[in-house]
């Protein structure tokens, strides 16, 4: 059973002006499709073919060559599309579980944003910034290089990602060129906090 490129839950132009339609279309139909195809090719005919993507990533150091970059690319973009929405932005409700957890872990929503933006800004070259849940159910912020993520057995800091931001240049260069910081701020205007809250609850189970 091969992995399939998921449909976006909104139009390519739906996140404008924060993220432009041309970037979204290329990102989804070329980059994400490419990772999906190469993941399928990498695991074809192996035991990994029958596994859930999360389980592949948890054993990725033992998986065939190509599974790390492309399995990461497949999973990371699935998560990325699902935590954005044209109706997103703002802050999670202070009475929601995710709103309370952010305040408890980082002091305030603004301090969370600062730390997350710093993780995105200081990731040298290509990679991702993450908000994750650790084994005790607490939140932490981290970043990973390339298409790695905190589910992988090779990750420095392990946990379940509930919010991810792609800081590869392919995610922002057409609109923001070298201004990664502006792109990161624009991302906060489209974050779907309801979706992040659902992932938070699921990760704590
Ligand atoms: Mn990408």
Provide structural commentary.
The longest helix is centred in the first third of the chain and has 23 residues. Helix 1 runs antiparallel to helix 3 and helix 4 packs across helix 5. By secondary structure, this protein is mainly alpha-helical. Helix content is 46%, strand content 10%. The model has no long low-confidence stretch (mean pLDDT 97). The chain has one domain: minor pseudopilin epsh fold, CATH 3.55.40.20. The structure holds manganese (II) ion (MN). The site of manganese (II) ion (MN) has 7 residues, from helix 1. The site of manganese (II) ion has 7 residues, from helix 1.
Spell out the key features of this protein.
205 residues; mainly alpha; 3-stranded antiparallel β-sheet; 8 helices; binds manganese (II) ion
Summarize the structure.
With 205 residues, the protein is mostly helical. It is built from 8 helices and 3 strands.
Give the cofactors and ligands. Answer: manganese (II) ion
SSE class: mainly alpha
What separation lies between the terminal Cα atoms? 27 Å
CATH superfamily: Iron/manganese superoxide dismutase, C-terminal domain
Widest beta sheet: strand line-up? 2-1-3
Poorly predicted sequence stretches spanning 5 or more consecutive residues: none
Give the tally of structural domains: 1
Mean pLDDT: 97
List the helices and strands and how they pair.
Layout: H1 21-43, H2 53-58, H3 67-82, H4 97-106, H5 109-122, E1 127-133, E2 139-145, E3 160-166, H6 173-176, H7 180-188, H8 193-204
Antiparallel strand pairs: 1-2, 1-3
Helix pairs in contact: 1-3, 4-5, 5-7
The structure holds manganese (II) ion.
The site of manganese (II) ion has 7 residues, from helix 1.
């Amino acid at each position: 059973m091969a992995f399939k490129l998921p449909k976006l839950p909104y139009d390519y132009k739906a996140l404008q002006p924060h993220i432009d339609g041309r970037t979204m279309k290329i990102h989804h139909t070329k980059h994400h499709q490419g990772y999906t195809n190469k993941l399928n090719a990498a695991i074809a005919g192996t035991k990994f073919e029958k596994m859930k993507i999360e389980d592949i990533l948890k054993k990725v150091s033992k998986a065939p060559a190509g599974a790390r970059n492309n399995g990461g690319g497949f999973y990371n973009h699935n998560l990325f599309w699902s935590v954005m929405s044209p109706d997103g932005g703002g802050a999670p409700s202070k009475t929601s579980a995710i709103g309370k957890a952010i305040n408890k872990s980082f002091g305030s929503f603004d301090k969370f944003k600062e730390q997350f933006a710093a993780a995105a800004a200081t990731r040298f070259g290509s990679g991702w910034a993450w908000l994750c849940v650790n084994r005790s159910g607490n939140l932490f912020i981290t970043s990973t290089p390339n298409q790695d993520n905190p589910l992988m057995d090779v990750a420095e800091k392990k946990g379940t990602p509930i919010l991810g931001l792609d800081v590869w240049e392919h995610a922002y260069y057409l609109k923001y060129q070298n201004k990664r910081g502006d792109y990161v701020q624009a991302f906060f205007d489209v974050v779907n906090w309801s979706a992040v809250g659902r992932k938070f609850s699921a990760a704590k189970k």
